[in-house]
Amino acid sequence: MSRANFTPEEVADITGAQLVNAGEGNPSGFSSDSRAVESGDLFIGIPGERIDGGTKTAEAIAAGAWGGLVSPAGADGLVLPQSGGLLVHPDPVEALGLLAAAWRAQLSCPVIAITGSTGKTSTKDILGAILETSGTTFTSAGNRNTEVGLPLELLRIDSDVSFVVLEMAMRAGGEIAHLTQIASPTVGVVVNVGPVHLETLGSIEAVASAKAELIAGLSSEGVCVTPAFDGLLTPHLRPELKSVTFGPEGDCRLIDAEGRTLTIDVHADQYLVEVDFDQPHNRLNLLAAVAAADAVGVKPPKQLQVPFSGLRGQRKAVDGGIVVIDDCYNANPMSMRAALADLSEESLRRGGRAVAVLGDMLELGPDEVSLHTELGNQVLAAGVDVLVTVGPLSAAASKVFGSNAVALDSAQEASERIAALLQPGDTVLIKGSRGIGLEVLAQSLGAVDS
Description:
The chain is an alpha/beta fold. It has helices spanning 8-15, 57-62, 72-75, 92-104, 120-132, 149-154, 175-183, 198-201, 204-211, 213-216, 280-295, 333-350, 368-381, 395-401, 411-421, 439-445; strands at residues 18-21, 29-31, 41-44, 67-70, 85-88, 111-115, 137-139, 163-167, 187-190, 223-227, 242-246, 252-258, 261-266, 269-275, 303-304, 314-318, 322-326, 354-359, 386-390, 405-408, 427-431, 448-449.
């Protein structure tokens, strides 16, 4: 069992970097954060808008790093101990990707890549839990799904794992294609396509095209998994590629549900699965995960427990019998609809009021005001009793909602006022784009996992 372990000469050969100082020994890990390096790491100095990370190389070495891979600007004026290794590359991010691709080529296990406008992290969590019942599974951590995070995750994978599950994110065209080239996935899953990143992409068709770069990058022996109901992806399907659909009328579909016991049909084979979650959108994410697992020969277990990533719909208890649905990692129109449906079901089950605390949805482009106005209609349709909006855009939703709406300017103001707005037995949804910072609300309420 081993993780990626290259000699300094191999790093230079793989990336085309100039080996300035071979240092002592070989790097044994990789990090792009000088504050979090571990002993023996090759520190990747990422150039930023305000500072070149390469200038932190001496600090990284002092903290135990083997040495650094930096840009020429980052290397300028560096004074390193004689034992510190140093490689210089015009683009350290590109070099990091090349190293990750080289390690991926040495892995013989299936690699499943997941993207989508919403729900990709939860789908990753569910798929990881399914695959873990059949073999050692590496699931990428948190939101390490970008051109820096994904390669660093790949380089952490042990050579003897049975399955790898990676998440891929994007803000513009070409980014998923780049990540796909690095990860060379066996199976590609596009969970859905929705109105996100319209500020940079311009249209939902462009979003579909960007997400479908995962499909385009699969080898001819690969499998693509897509929602049966999403026609936006149809033009991007490849006839020579095996395609599997999930959802209503799909190859993998839900045919019965009794509480948390679900009956799933996969290519005419039926499985009874007891899950530990209730959300309707996670049932759909489950179908995507089951379809992907089936593509690598793994069947769903009879009982499935999923350790979901934080800030993604967790129930948290508050004094007075109040339950907080902490779903404030991010938000877009599609994920807002799913979260409101979850709030509606949970409040009906518990019997108290439904309270929605919703922050601005960012990066929606020229339609941002109309999309927030429509959000107000969705809140009304969900049967919400009290609406609290946070930020100038979501204030449009409060105008639609009416007299039981409170429009606030900031997350800090909301954290100061939220307790006074609640009653015993309330179910409270907290959701908004990460830039609004709504995570302080759950903290201010003293919410704990229930």
